[in-house]
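Checklist before submission:
- one chain only
- standard amino acids only
- sequence pasted in full

Submission:
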Amino acid sequence: MKDSKWTWRTVSLVSILATLLLITGFVYAVGDILNPKGEQFLSSLPQETAAPTAAANDEYKILALGDSLAKGTGDNSGQGFVRRTVDALSANGGKAELLGNMGINGLTTAALQSKLQEEGVQYALRQANVILISIGGNDLFRGSDILGTGGSSGQAAASAKPSQQAVPQSTEAPANNKVEGTTPVPTASAGDLTPESLLSALPGAAKRLGSILDTVAEVNPQAQVYYIGLYNPFGDIEGLLIPGNQAVTAWNNAAMDMINKHQNMTLVPTFDLFDRHLAKYLSNDHFHPNGDGYQRMSERIVQAVR
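Returned file contents:
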C-alpha cells in the first residue's frame, strides 16, 4: 500500500510540474505575439569602410589594344592609363602583369580589324584575362576631317609596330606645328562642322567595332574585356561643343549596345571625366589626355575591374 501511495504522489507531482511548464510556455508565447521584439541593430553605421582589394588568388594578366590613348600618347611620364591601371591593381598585395601594350598612334577600327587576324596578336589575346581596348576616336573625328588630315594619317600610322610599353612623347613641336605620333590641333572651321559631318563616319566604324568585339570574344571567351568610351576633346572650342557631344554620345551609345551582347564585356565611360575639365586633363596637343587625365581614366578602369 505504501509503495502504491508514493507512486501516485510522484505521478501527481510530475503532472503538476508539467502543467506549470505548459502554462509558462503558453504565457510566454502569447506575450511574444502581443509584444514582438525584433533583432537588435547597431545604433550607428561604421565610420570607415575598408577599400576593396583584389582577392589573394586573383592575378590580372593584362593586354592593351587600340589607338594612341591605349599607347599613352600625351602623358609625359609614359605611363598612360594602361601602366597606371597595372600599378594600381598591383598595390596592396594584388597581382597584375602587363603582357603587352599594342596601342598604335592613329589606329582606326579598320586597322585594328586587320591586326586581330595576326597570329601574334591572337596568341597575346589568349594569354590575357583582362583586355583593355581603346578605339574609335580616329574614325569619328578624322572621318569628318575635323583635324584637317585628309583621313589618311590614321591608316599610315597603323603600319607602325605596336609598342610594348608607352614612351614619353616630346612636347616640343617642329616648325610645321605637328608633333610626330600625335593628333594635330584642329584646323577645320567650326562653321563647316555639323553633327551630320561628324556622324557620317559612325555607321561604318560602329559596325567594325562590333566585329572587333566579336573577334576578341571568339579568340578568348573567358577574358574580361573593358572598352574605353570616348570623350569630346573639342568641347571648349566655339562651335564644336554641341556637334562633338552629339557625335561622341551617339558613338558611346552604339558601343554600349554592342557590348551588352557579350557577358564578359564592360564599357568604361570617360565622357563625364573630361566634360568641362579639358584644360585640366588634356595635353598640349588638345586631343590626348595628360598625366592627370590618364590617371582619372585609370581610376575608373580599376573600379570596373575590381
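Reviewer check: DSSP finds 13 helices and five strands in the chain.
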